[in-house]
Here is the input.
Amino acid sequence: MGPSQSRKERRAKKKRNKKIEKEFAQDNEELDKEIKILVLGTGDSGKSTFVKQMQILYKEGFNESEKQLYRNAIRENIKNHVKELLRIANRLGLTLQKSNIYISEEFMRLLKEKTTKEITEKIKNCVIKLWNDSALKTSFKKRAQFQLPDTANYFLNKTESIFRSDYEPNEVDILGCRIPTTGIKQITFKLNDNIWKIVDVGGQRSERRKWIHQFDDVHLFIYVCAISEYDQQLFEDDSVNRMLESLKLFKKTANNEHFKDKDCAILFNKMDLFSEKILEVDLRVCFMEYDGGKDLENATQFIKNKFLKSSKSKKREIYCHYTCATDTENVKFVFESIQSSVSQKLMEKSAKF
Ligand SMILES: Nc1nc2c(ncn2[C@@H]2O[C@H](COP(=O)(O)OP(=O)(O)OP(=O)(O)O)[C@@H](O)[C@H]2O)c(=O)[nH]1
Ligand SMILES: [Mg+2]
Here is the structure.
């Protein structure tokens, strides 16, 4: 190797080092601006729905392969809804129309078959007939005592189009689709000069032990409570009231050593369902001491106070929001409020140093 060559090599090395330094400085700058938000709460409370809205609002929505995934999941959702409705009808002693008894047996048999175009068509026909049966409609009304999602009727009413070969789910369908989260999912986007990293976790009991790995460097945690679930039992354990589980979990999380003084936003979610339910079902089914009657304002205030009292920290800020995670405009408004509080706090902090 000649001397001129080694000079050339040295120059190339210097150039490479400079490039690495520049990238490193850029990375550090990006890291400074990264804001990590952890979304916590019990299963089915609406965490992933909230995060899906981030994808709609601040990213490019859903790509073809995601749409295909949701299309298949929605079809699976529908099959499970009918299965659960048949189970409820049976438990309640409701009898199907004579002609539908055979259809229900046929439906259960078809579910075991390999999914082909022909089988899918047959399943669709069974679903339509069964969903038109008054026994299943009555079962749907009694869903709070069982494990049937509130969105079940939305999808069941759309069965014909959902099972068509050219069906492509729209945003409303994707937001209504239920896929319980397993593991950790995250979404990153740029907004107002900051990189926002939103971390979504699974909320069912078996998933919660994975949360701890996400506790570092959190700027704020969002706690999602499905406020409409005060008369429902846990999917994992039907002897436990969902609202009480959520309150207990919030208390445990908010007072956890890692989060001691961390700011928090509580989303009292599924307000659309709550505002209808509270007129029918008294909050006393969950909290015996509540005496505000079937009144939306009294009931929301009561639940909010229960949560606020559970946090021991005097230093933390708790922002409360009433949300409907399936409503894009509502989530936009709420997230903008959260992000402006977080940005403001960061600016105050950096001004101090
Ligand atoms: N009506 C109504 N449905 C909602 C709302 N928020 C979420 N949902 C529905 O509730 C179901 C559960 O929502 P997810 O976002 O999957 O719940 P999650 O908290 O991520 O649940 P895990 O992943 O199991 O922890 C979905 O079918 C959503 O469409 C809401 O505000 N109103
Ligand atoms: Mg989820």
Remarks:
- The mean pLDDT is 92.
- The chain has two domains: 35-62+181-347, 64-176.
- The beta strands are 34-41, 184-191, 194-201, 220-226, 263-269, 318-322.
